[in-house]
Design a protein that fits this description.
Elements (H helix, E strand, L loop, with lengths): L2 H14 L15 H11 L8 E8 L5 E7 L6 H8 L4 E3 L2 H8 L19 E5 L8
Parallel strand pairs: 2-4
Antiparallel strand pairs: 1-2, 1-3
C-alpha cells in the first residue's frame, strides 16, 4: 500500500466533502512530546488540544481498535480493556496498521478508517475529548 497515494485519497475525500483543513507534513510522532515539538517548530502555539491516536489489537489479531485518547492523560490498556469488557490488547502489528489504516506507526489517524473497507477496526473515543472542543 502506497502511503503517498493514501494521502492523496484522504485529501481528495476532504475536498469532495467540502471539509476545510490545514495540511502539515510531519515525521512520525511516537510520543506526545514529538507532537509538541513539531507544533513548536511550526509555530502552532496557544490553546490547541492534542489527541493520542493509538492502534491496538488482541493477541489473535482478530479485533482492532483505533483509540482517540486525551493527549494530556496517561493511557492504560488495562483500564481500556476493563471499561470495554474485552480481553487484553496491545499495540497492533505494523503490517495490520498499514493494511487496515493505510499508515505506519507514528501516523495513526481516524482519517485512515476510510481504508478499512471491511470495517474491521472499532473506533473508540475518550469521553474526556467532548470537553476539549
Amino acid at each position: 500500500m502506497d502511503t503517498n497515494d493514501n494521502k492523496t485519497q484522504v485529501l481528495n475525500l476532504l475536498e469532495a466533502l467540502s471539509i476545510s483543513y490545514k495540511y502539515y507534513e510531519h515525521p512520525t510522532a511516537n510520543t506526545m512530546e514529538d507532537c509538541a515539538e513539531f507544533d513548536r517548530l511550526q509555530g502552532i502555539l496557544g490553546d490547541t488540544s492534542r489527541v493520542k491516536n493509538i492502534f491496538l489489537s488482541n493477541r489473535q489479531r482478530t479485533a482492532h481498535y483505533l483509540v482517540l485518547a486525551d493527549g494530556d492523560k496517561r493511557f492504560s490498556t488495562k483500564d481500556f480493556c476493563k471499561q470495554l469488557g474485552i480481553p487484553r490488547v496491545s499495540f497492533a502489528k505494523e503490517e495490520d496498521m498499514l493494511a487496515l489504516l493505510g499508515c505506519l506507526p507514528g501516523a495513526a489517524s481516524p482519517l485512515g478508517l476510510i481504508f478499512d473497507k471491511e470495517r474491521r477496526v472499532t473506533l473508540v473515543c475518550d469521553e474526556n475529548l467532548k470537553s476539549k472542543s
